[in-house]
């Protein structure tokens, strides 16, 4: 069972809302999933409400073999940049260097 970290589209027409989920690679785009890792709302009123990702769970799923799509990887990088340095555990900082 190959796992992917990808986006599910929700919301109304011209008002998208995405969930970042872990799912099997052959599942439908908006179908079954294993876990919700966060949300992305590109048209949010405030920039702070645009992206919300559980980085600890993302790291767990990547450690067990889940591969993020290009868009999901981009959003994960963006979420890491927005996290203040004191909130990042020491082992993650040493792994990135």
Which structural class do you get from the secondary structure elements? alpha+beta
Strand elements, count: 5
- CATH class wording: Alpha Beta
Radius of gyration: 14 Å
* CATH fold field value: S16 Ribosomal Protein, Chain: A
How much helix is in the residues? 25-40%
Looking at CATH, the homologous superfamily is Ribosomal protein S16
Strand order within the widest sheet?
4-3-2-1-5
User: How many distinct folded domains?
Assistant: 1
Q: What sort of overall outline do the alpha carbons produce when their principal axes are compared?
A: flat
Describe this structure in words.
The chain has 97 residues and is an alpha+beta fold. It has a single domain, classed as S16 Ribosomal Protein, Chain: A (2-Layer Sandwich), CATH 3.30.1320. 30% of the residues lie in helices and 32% in strands. The protein has helices at residues 55-63, 70-82, 90-96, and strands at 3-12, 15-24, 35-40, 51-53, 67-68. A five-stranded mixed β-sheet has the order 4-3-2-1-5. The radius of gyration is 14 Å and the shape is flat. It starts with a strand and ends with a helix. The mean pLDDT is 87.
Outline the fold blueprint.
Elements: E1 3-12, E2 15-24, E3 35-40, E4 51-53, H1 55-63, E5 67-68, H2 70-82, H3 90-96
Parallel strand pairs: 1-5
Antiparallel strand pairs: 1-2, 2-3, 3-4
């Amino acid at each position: 069972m190959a796992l992917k970290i990808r986006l599910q589209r929700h919301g109304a027409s011209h008002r998208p809302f995405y969930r970042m989920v872990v799912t099997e690679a052959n599942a439908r785009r908006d179908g079954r999933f294993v876990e919700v890792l966060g949300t992305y709302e590109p048209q949010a009123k405030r920039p702070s409400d645009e992206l919300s990702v559980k980085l600890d769970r993302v790291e767990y799923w990547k450690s067990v073999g889940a591969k993020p799509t290009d868009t999901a990887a981009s959003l994960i990088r963006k979420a890491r940049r927005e996290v203040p340095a004191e909130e990042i555990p020491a082992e993650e900082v040493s792994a990135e260097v």
